[in-house]
């Protein structure tokens, strides 16, 4: 996958800024940001990104719920990658049951790793 468009969804402005810097430094185009589920769903519908980088711990609806809404509303929509400051083991089987294509710990986020995760995901 070449450079792709991304919407970063996280309730912490600092992480959104870091994710933007990291991804844009690797050729991704961050087309939008959102701080909660409601604004994320609006932005994703309007911007139609290739990828949504989605925090699990949002204040109004968790990332699992947002991923489900994206999958229901946007058939063939963006690839959703869940992120968290917690380790994947904290979420047990919820990750496998989610329509998201994968998970990245926030401290491990990088452009090539995200690109590889998307390339390996069944679509």
Structure commentary:
The protein is α/β, with parallel strands linked by helices. Helix content is 39%, strand content 21%. The protein has helices at 13-24, 37-47, 63-73, 94-97, 111-120, and strands at residues 5-9, 29-34, 51-55, 79-84, 102-105. A five-stranded parallel sheet has the order 2-1-3-4-5, with helices on both faces. Helix 2 runs parallel beside helix 3 (63-73). The protein is globular and about 30 Å long. The two termini are 13 Å apart. The mean pLDDT is 93.
List the helices and strands and how they pair.
Layout: E1 5-9, H1 13-24, E2 29-34, H2 37-47, E3 51-55, H3 63-73, E4 79-84, H4 94-97, E5 102-105, H5 111-120
Parallel strand pairs: 1-2, 1-3, 3-4, 4-5
Helix pairs in contact: 2-3
């Amino acid at each position: 996958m070449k450079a792709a468009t991304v919407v970063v969804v996280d309730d912490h402005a600092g992480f959104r800024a870091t994710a933007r810097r990291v991804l844009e430094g690797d050729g991704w185009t961050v087309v939008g940001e959102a701080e909660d589920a409601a604004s994320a769903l609006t932005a994703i519908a309007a911007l139609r990104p290739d990828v949504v980088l989605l925090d699990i711990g949002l204040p109004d609806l968790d990332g699992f719920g947002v991923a489900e809404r994206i999958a229901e509303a946007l058939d063939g929509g963006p690839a959703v990658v869940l992120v968290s400051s917690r380790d994947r083991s904290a979420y047990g089987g919820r990750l496998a049951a989610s329509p998201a294509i994968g998970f990245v710990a926030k401290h491990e986020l990088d452009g090539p790793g995200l690109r590889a995760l998307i390339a390996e995901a069944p679509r």
